[in-house]
Design a protein that fits this description.
With 202 residues, the protein is an alpha+beta fold. The protein contains seven helices and four strands, in the order βαβαββααααα.
Length: 202
């Protein structure tokens, strides 16, 4: 049995929920309230010294952190992970893009807009975050203009990783109507077999 420690409002955690649901793999979900310090307790830090979710724990006690590393591990040997070396490299390219050029802007803007009070000082960061997020969305729009999915014309881990925070980017103030190819892709991802919405079991 797989155990996932996660926060249901987190896109990074949602990646693993969605992947496991689509693969039909049983798992136990342990809610961790990171906003209220539960990732900084002695017990959690003993599991992940970096103090972040998601965290995957195997029944033999091994643990793996970082959402995209966990997604690659879980997808290995399944239809979600490419068999071709070039397509695997392209998948990794988009996973790195998601963590360095997408998530730091779109996810952070969403966090500020959704979870912080309107008078919080971090709202001053929104113009910079909006510009960075729109740059990432424009890269995605250009890539998707001539294809259905990110790698090999098949739904896979690259799509799953980018979907997690893109599908809720509106909560961060992003106008997705400006990105028709991204919107069409979001619909295709949502139509995949086994798709479940963010935190459906909450």
């Amino acid at each position: 049995m797989l155990t996932v420690y996660g926060n249901r409002t987190s896109g990074n955690c949602y990646k693993l929920q969605l992947l496991l649901d689509q693969l039909g793999r049983p798992y136990t979900w342990v809610d961790v309230d990171s906003a209220n310090g539960e990732t900084q307790t002695e017990a959690f830090l003993a599991r992940n010294a970096n103090g972040k979710v998601p965290l995957l724990e195997l029944d033999d006690g091994r643990r793996l952190a970082e959402s995209n590393a966990i997604a690659c591990f879980l997808a290995e040997g399944t239809w979600m992970w490419p068999g071709d070396a070039w397509e695997r490299a392209q998948t990794l390219q988009w996973l790195f893009f998601e963590q360095y050029s997408h998530e730091p802007y779109i996810a952070v803007a969403r966090f500020i807009q959704r979870f912080l009070p309107a008078n919080h000082a971090r709202h001053a960061d929104l113009p910079r975050l909006t510009a960075g997020g729109n740059k990432a969305l424009a890269v995605m729009e250009a890539h998707l203009a001539g294809r259905s999915f990110f790698v090999g014309e098949r739904y896979g881990v690259a799509d799953l990783a980018l979907y997690a925070y893109t599908h809720c980017a509106g909560e961060g103030g992003f106008d997705l109507s400006s990105y028709p190819a991204v919107n069409a892709w979001l619909d295709r991802v949502a139509a995949q077999p086994g798709h479940t919405s963010m935190h459906p079991h909450a």
